[in-house]
Amino acid sequence: MIVDGVVDREGVPGLATRLGYSVRQVERRLLAELGSGPLAIARARRARTARLLAETTALPMTEIAVAAGFASVRAFNETVRELFGRSPTDLRGGRRAPGGVPGAVVLRLPFRGPLHAPSLFGPLVANAVPGVEEWRDGAYRRTLRLPRGHGVVSLRPRADHVECDLTLTDSRDLPVAISRCRRALDLDADPAEVDGALRADPALRPLVDAAPGTRVPGVVDGAECAVRALLGEGTGTGTGAAMGAGANAGWAHRVVREAGEAVPDPAGGGLTHLFPTPQALLDLDPALLPPPARAPLTALLTALVGGVDLGAGADRAEARSALRCAGERVLDAVLTRSLGDPDGFCPDDPAVRAAAGGIGLPVTAAALADRSRAWRPWRAYATRYLLGRTPT
Question: What is the 3-state secondary structure (H, E, C) of 32-73?
Fold first, then answer.
């Protein structure tokens, strides 16, 4: 939540309220676990964002200070000098600010290699909702709903980084947008640790060796993920294991056209709308939803409008309660993708059982669950390796 900018926008009291603790409890827990309080962690986050922008973009320093969340240029300069021992100008290395589209920035998103791009971008593209997402010119593009405005992002895989082209209506949303893009692509994973653990199972080893660095695609919006999962289940086309959460593009595109907010595409591509908010979907004519999904969707949307959070750092018990109407497959997919659970696993999913049987693993849910204990805490990655054998 701190990485997502909650402290910058709502202060430590806002963070404490979201977590269900007092301010003192939050400060004590963070100090005990991480050695720093929430304000210090938020300050370090702003400094890292500023350094990234100084080193990889040519934005003016005043714009970097605002985009990184600093209250003033002076605070920006002092923090950068204190934490990095260099001035912002020294970090930049002499680049000058170019002209271009207002609110646009191009930067590199680093990752630990290897990264198997086909298994990462494939599910995102296969489940893309027209108007909200697209694959164009070798990049995954989509619209973003952000705390202070909206944006459009283009993410293009490179050998040692992902090229991130962002256009925002409010530059203060930049750190949040970067954080959500990293989560969507699982760029903070440690593939050496994950793959090393999974290769210990002889049945999984050939899959890992064939596609090292396979990631678990995440999401930029937990509420959107849950809604799309239920739309897919409601049409009979969804599978939680697909990690695309079974989105049925036809129904999702329909609700986007009816309830989504129209936005321009700065690149002249096919992006036209933001995905609808829970309130907009709740106000939608139920006839526009697949009949089997109407009741569970109404229950989910009511919970979301009431304040339930399905974003990174959300309360897992509260999220499970909000999704209890969705069934285990959807629950598993949403918790894995939205809350970033690396151990999410659903042995009841037919696609998972079929893939497991194809490499000689048990096909009954109970036996597969027992075998999967050896894959902990990386069962979500094991699922991706299994499903990588078949279209998802």
Answer: HHHCCCHHHHHHHHHHHHHHHHHHHCCCCHHHHHHHHCCCCH
Closest C-alpha to 19, from 2, 43, 31, 34: 2
d(CA 58, CA 33): 37
Residue 373 makes CB contacts below 8 A (sequence gap 6+) with none
Using one digit for the tens of pLDDT, what is the confidence trace for 208-250? 999 999 999 999 999 999 999 888 854 444 444 444 444 456 7
153 strand-pairing partners: 142, 166
Whether the CA torsion 377, 117, 217, 17 is positive or negative: it is positive
Handedness of CA 59, 61, 63, 69 (dihedral sign): positive
Identify the residue whose tokens are 């693993």. 361
Helix (H, G, I), strand (E, B) or coil at 219: coil
- For residue 315, pLDDT over 90 is answered with no
Backbone CA torsion sign across 315, 318, 319, 320: positive
The 8 Å CB, 24+ separation contacts for 256-264 are 256/129, 256/130, 256/131, 256/132, 257/131, 258/284, 258/285, 258/288, 259/283, 259/284, 260/131, 260/132, 261/150, 263/143, 263/150, 263/152
Count of Cβ atoms closer than 10 Å to residue 352 Cβ: 27
| Partners of residue 145 on adjacent β-strands | 150
Q: CA triplet 271, 276, 282: central angle to 5 degrees?
A: 160
Q: Chain centroid to CA 258: how far?
A: 25
Task: Tell me the pLDDT tens digit for each residue of 167-219.
Answer: 999 888 888 999 999 999 999 999 999 999 999 999 999 999 999 999 999 99
Q: Do 141 and 153 touch, CB atoms closer than 8 A? A: yes
